[in-house]
Amino acid sequence: MDHIKAIAFDLYGTLFDVHSVASRCDEQFPGRGQEISNVWRQKQLEYTWLRSLMNRYIPFEHVTEEALRYTSRHLGLALDDETCRSLSDAYLHLQPFAEVPDALRELRQRGLKLAILSNGSPHSIGAVVGHAGLRNSFDHLLSVDPVRVYKPDNRAYELAEHAFGLNRTEILFVSSNAWDATGARYFGFPTAWVNRGGKVFDEMGQKPDWEVNGLDALVKLLGAAG
Amino acid sequence: MDHIKAIAFDLYGTLFDVHSVASRCDEQFPGRGQEISNVWRQKQLEYTWLRSLMNRYIPFEHVTEEALRYTSRHLGLALDDETCRSLSDAYLHLQPFAEVPDALRELRQRGLKLAILSNGSPHSIGAVVGHAGLRNSFDHLLSVDPVRVYKPDNRAYELAEHAFGLNRTEILFVSSNAWDATGARYFGFPTAWVNRGGKVFDEMGQKPDWEVNGLDALVKLLGAAG
């Protein structure tokens, strides 16, 4: 990976655990937290894709609330507006995966430029990263909001290329989301898939260049190749 | 509904039961048919949306095969190329829902123009409709293939407007898929959602104009309003 000068990370599910909202859901609906979190996340993703296709972009926080409203009706759970907002706010306080802070520090020490490229709004990204004390780990926090379309549309990936001022072949894209890694690969980024849960990759005509089980493994991989 | 002059139907899940492939899957993988069918259908949909967003259209039959390949790996089932093709061919032999043939006949007798507007390729649509003996029920069989993008992109819905030569407000769009009914509604079609299974509608800022539990109920609704 000698040619890699910068890394763009996906946020949700890659650096931060989206299912850390499950405990908040479980306080509100005892015993249902994980189930709610699973349906909620799936619908949140679907709504970003569908709204992009329909050319009906709204910011990620609103998509998140709409997906939670669907989830509560689908699971037959009563949800008032206040609880909906309060649970959705849990997406602003996600926990980073355990190895992430150390791994980011090591990558920066090697002189790599780092960015987040996320479907989240600037406010969401800032809040999540700020609460985790990781603001200084990144050169750029990039939201798709200026282009008003969600990943895996090419216009989203272009934001990282422009921010770094590098050719896409010099930017490693890192995501736990197989569909996101697929989109990045089609765009032309060298791509690493973070597969923490022994999942299988998607079948859309692309494979990641590297597969790792965490960011610590990514640091080792970059060290070995560098 | 006096102003309705034509009806465009979604095919998969609306006129024809996508889960009629479960019995073929069950012959191949005993006891797993319904589970395979559920994952397969979900991934098939996701791949149509994601490929559209990535501008990487491939025909629906190929998406169907890719989705089945993912499904078999996800569920840990061995799937050779021949079995993959053979099971995917089950999507060419779907069963119509029981009330569909009579309902189509009644709608035509009232002078309405009828079309299918489907993500399926021309070959897939023709095969499904032909095997069910319903070819003569439709004035148009419309595939998204010429525009190389899947629903709910507006370019797909425009195909029905052009084929009928009518204003979109004169064309009733009928789908069991809430995301499809949402896209059609944003496009400007009056829209009926066929909800056979007591599902909840999606939360993407639209509601269907009508909700029915089958095509027989739609016939009654049109009769009552006409």
TrEMBL record, chains A, B:
InterPro entries: 2-HAD (IPR006328), HAD-like_sf (IPR036412), HAD-SF_hydro_IA (IPR006439), HAD_sf (IPR023214), PGP-like_dom2 (IPR023198), S-2-haloacid_dehalogenase (IPR051540). GO terms for molecular function: (S)-2-haloacid dehalogenase activity. It is an enzyme of class 3 (hydrolase). Its EC number is 3.8.1.2. Keywords: Hydrolase. It catalyses: an (S)-2-haloacid + H2O = a (2R)-2-hydroxycarboxylate + a halide anion + H(+). Belongs to the HAD-like hydrolase superfamily. S-2-haloalkanoic acid dehalogenase family. Catalyzes the hydrolytic dehalogenation of small (S)-2-haloalkanoic acids to yield the corresponding (R)-2-hydroxyalkanoic acids. This is (S)-2-haloacid dehalogenase. It comes from Paraburkholderia franconis.
